[in-house]
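Handout, section B. The chain below has 191 residues.
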Amino acid sequence: MTSPEEANESETIRLPRIDEPRYLIKSLVHASQVLAAFRSEGEILRLRDLVERTGETRMTCFRIVYTLHRCGFLEKLAENQYRPRFIIRPKRKFVLGYVAHGQKDSFPRDVEESLIRAAEEANFELIVVTNRHDAKTAVRNAEHLVRDRVDLAIVFQTEEVAAPSIAARFLDAGIPLIAIDIPHPGATLSC
């Protein structure tokens, strides 16, 4: 009889990988990645866009797209342009970006606490950044939220000189903006 230590050395035990369950059909995983690349209803993507968004090779992506088109999941509009034939339901959470000015007086604190509560109740992700009453930091924070691709930005900052630059960052990125206290050009709402 062998000891447990000897058995471990002489036998190789093959366990299924946790991240790749035994019954997972990889081709369906790849097809779901291609379908998930479409981020909105009616979005038209070229083959090169799908390759970029999925990380698949061009040939693999082409074969998946060709199959999805033949099965009726994708509509071919032009040479290498496709659109889904169904409504896209986003998998990711809605992301709010909140730019706080850093003051801990009762009103700013109440605003931040209420946003945190509302985001938790709605199952939204909330990214909070603080400007520390500095215009340059305020602009950098806006750029940070644009890079994080927030769905809505709420800005509570007191540096009037920074308002046009901050608003421009969000408007250029197509991100709606709500401004609290200081009006920002093009903001969806200013409170």
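Note. Residues 24-84 form a domain with the Arc Repressor Mutant, subunit A fold (CATH 1.10.10.10). Compare this with the example in section A.
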